[in-house]
Amino acid sequence: MVEIALILLTPILGGLVYGVERILRARMQNRIGPPLLQPFYDMYKLLDKQAILVNSYHIVFALLHMITLWITVALLIVGFHLLYVIFIHLIATIFLVLAGYSVRSVYSHIGSNRELMAMVAYEPILIFIAVGFYLVYGTFDTAVIFNSELMLDKMILLFMAFLIIIPIKLKKSPFDATEAHQEIVGGVELEYGGVFFEILYMAKWIEYIFIFTIVFLFCADSFILGMVLSVVIFFVLNLIDNATARIKIADLLKIVLGFGIILSIINLIGIVYV
Amino acid sequence: MQGFIFMLIFLPVIFAITLPFTSVRIRTLSTILYVAFLIFTSLQVFFHTDTIAFSFSHFQHIAFIVVDFALLGYFIFQGIKYKQNLVTILAVVQTILFIVVLQFSSSIFSSDIIVDDLSKIMLLVVNIVGGIIIIYALKYIDLEELKECKKGLFIGILFFFIGVMNFLVTSNNIELFFLTFELTTLCSYLLIRYRMDDIALNNALRALWMNQVGGVAILVSLLGSLYFYESLYFDVLLRSGASDYLLPIALLVVAAMVKGASLPFEKWLLGAMVAPTPVSAILHSATMVKIAPYLVLKISPALSPSLSLFIVIFGSFVFMSASLMAFSRDFFKEILGLSTIALLALMVALASLGTQQATTIVLILIVFHALSKALLFLQAGILEKQYHLKYLSDIDGVISHSKVVVFFILIGFASLTLPPFGAFLGKFMTIELLADLVATNALYIIPMVFILLGSVFLTMLYFKVVTKLLIQAEPTQDKAPIPYLFVLTSSSLVALLFYGIYKVYQLGYIGTFELLIPLAILGVTLLLLILSSYKGAHRVKEYNCAEKDEVVIQAFYFNIQKKYLDFIRYVCILAFLTIIILGAI
Amino acid sequence: MFKKLFNFKAYRKKSPWILHYNAGSCNGCDIEILACLSPKYDLERFGVLNTGNPKQSDVFLVTGPVTFRSRERLVELYNQIPEPKVVVAVGSCTCTGGVFRGMYNVEDGIDRYIPVDVYVPGCAASPELIIDGVVKGLEVLETKTKQIEVPFKLSTSPEQKDGIVDRTNMSKRIGDD
């Protein structure tokens, strides 16, 4: 019952998280920041604009990107094969990439190319995390993992690898080259306006919920630890976002893939032999 | 049932002889009939549940030996005619080795032809996918500028090739296996150089000598088998204490990997892409190169654990390297060829594991990879004939001319990387299998790293190729419709893809929701793409900082530095030598 | 309560996203606009975001007398902003040409090209004045409709193709008729 409510309210929860984030970032910069419900005011404003689009394929792919992300979060919460969920998340990314490729705009294409390269950076690490879950808990099913005992100490290095890839997925510095505002003017989301931009805006909120659900998954049945870790990660993420600059996509690939794979391999060897 | 196998092997040869002398209409009709007959026969064999076994008579064996010598003589002649010393030397070496082999006689006998479950699945793949490609080739070769009898000869050689492949996947006798192996090399040589220009001739000769290396390996393995086991039959080789003398097995693995064009032998496959597209589809992606995983699967019970582990590591390394190398290519068929090499290396790696689960994965990969790659190559052929587009940098605005081709290409690429399709399922089950294996032996982390990296590189490669396909352009005046035979064959391959997924679901390898959710997403995509029109929205231009310049879009390419490419090549050559050494000790 | 939930118009002024364009200015007013977004004046507490993208913005903040080269781009950007939109002219140069009025290389102010809603004088306009101007612009935004506003020069009206409004070829080059 709680799960169905969580799934249906995912965009709203994501919107609230995004609102808190904007206030947090403003306070860190000694400003006041917008009101808490600002993302929803943005949503209303976008719904009220004249709808504009470049071509209809562009919109369809964006819509499917959001729907597939929502389905991914729903499957994680309800209980599904973890590896399969990661591949459905891959479908969501591919939809975004195809959306970027379907217009004749330079920035869109650069955004899509960078999105593909970022996918090369985080996809192997996500699968290593799934394999790590399998080796520790003996199953890929997320419903079973949510009810199992907390074993974070055996997966601590994999958790650190996951922390490295969070900024890529949430488009935060220093790894936000895929949606570099003011460098490629937003990348893929450039050509969207009005209600269609709302779809991508909502997809960003849902991504927050996806990341935090995986953090809760790491904490198995200890809800309190999950909450504490989520809050700490949220705070540190925004702190690093405010403090660092963006690094180039090639360096992103080298750093994330390098560190991520080394940490994952050490952790897997540790799980097998210790 | 024995008669069916006979017909599958020898009737295509007879079909092949009739075809060069017929007119276009009779050729079309008779080809469709022949293909229907082949598909029907292979289905009959598939549904027959027992193993079929029989042997050839002594006269038939003598006939085969004569054909073998004629073949080697033809190779020597070609080598001398075109002044390629490697071809001549290898052919002479093969002849000498073959004469030596004939001196020995084996004492343990078994059937010449054994059709077990593996052979039945391979027969299905060869006949059905091969048949569909031959029907496509009818229209394709019609659009080429060749003499009529040469066009008929083309289709004839394709049928001859199918007969040879049917023989190869059912033969239990290593000597006959060598004969059919070299016959497929002959078909490959004849078909690659079909257009008779300089590049085609050079590439055909290169393919010839590289495949002959495989032939030499088979002959030495045959010698070893006769010497150690006194038999030239596969099943005897596998039964009798296989861990004692591994050299024949290791050499067979080497031959398989040469045929499957794993690095460092990839040049022949890439060079073969100058051939007409049906040749690339049938020989170099769907059927002939599948000899590699087929052979390794067949001999996998006999592999020692250390050799098996080494092949897994090497295969996954080739998987990753071949995907990386494809980033710098511009020729569409070369990209497809390199991804074929990568997936074949993955299949060989999994086949050498030998467990029940690994065998299932390899079979799923063989079937679905054949379907997907055939589909992609057919689309490459349509792009080549209809729009004269061979290189990625020339493609622009294809979607405005023909949505169907873009749709098929997208389905082709999606079927290799995304749920719920078959080749994706193979990779998915591979990761689960490797996760289980890592729990037992941490050395399996190395192939896991390579396979994960390789599969994500392949995904990035496929969708980078799609870059320019989706950009719309103003449709120009000439909207010539695509010939219906092209669309028919491509649609039948897509239908087979979906039917295959349904079959896999029935066999229980994928759960209900795991199948339905991605299919639902795919269905919704199609529905929305076709039906949505958004009449209320205004159409605007793309944002280009309000500049008025024309925007030209290109896909991105990565060049690997030469020193890394050389390093990869040396590692692979070293790996081949290690396989032989591991077999010898 | 429901009226509040579905009264979309009232939310327009709660989240104005600005597009800032420099039509040849000396950058003085640009610096002041950026200062508005800094911690001392903090425009973000009104929900203002500086997007660099016309398709996602409501308020078009322009500085600078319109120089020769920036004319076409000004009109092009204005056409790409979806309705309802507000134009705020920041600085004396944008309103009337300022110190450059009458020179050979400037058009005196942007209201020869696009309809302006709020004029913010000053050289450079101070941040308090700019915030005042934006807030006044938001009041104007509430009254706007979704009717297409066409620039006065260098632009045609949108075409209609099979019942779909097509704005891709609205702006013209100098020299086109």
Structure description:
The complex is a heterotrimer of chains A (274), B (585) and C (177). By secondary structure, chain A is mainly alpha-helical. Chain A is built from 11 helices and 1 strand. In chain A, 73% of the residues lie in helices and 1% in strands. The model of chain A has no long low-confidence stretch (mean pLDDT 91). Chain B is an all-alpha fold. Chain B has helices at 2-18, 24-47, 58-81, 85-103, 117-142, 148-170, 174-192, 198-229, 234-239, 247-259, 267-271, 277-286, 291-299, 305-325, 332-351, 356-387, 398-401, 403-417, 422-440, 445-465, 484-507, 512-531, 562-584; strands at residues 52-54, 113-115, 538-539. In chain B, helix 13 packs parallel to helix 15 (332-351), helix 16 (356-387) packs antiparallel against helix 18 (403-417) and helix 16 runs antiparallel to helix 19 (422-440). The two termini of chain B are 42 Å apart. With 177 residues, chain C is α/β, with parallel strands linked by helices. Chain C has a single domain, classed as 3-Layer(aba) Sandwich (Rossmann fold), CATH 3.40.50. In chain C, 27% of the residues lie in helices and 18% in strands. Chain C has helices at 2-6, 28-36, 70-80, 92-96, 127-143; strands spanning 17-22, 49-50, 59-63, 66-67, 86-90, 106-107, 118-120, 159-161, 164-166. In chain C, the strands form 3 sheets. Chain C has a 5-stranded parallel beta sheet with strand order 2-1-3-5-7, sandwiched between helices. Chains in contact: A-B, A-C, B-C. At the A-B interface, strand 1, helix 4, helix 5, helix 6 and helix 11 of A face helix 19, helix 20, helix 22 and strand 3 of B. Strand 1 of chain A pairs parallel with strand 3 of chain B, so a sheet runs across the interface.
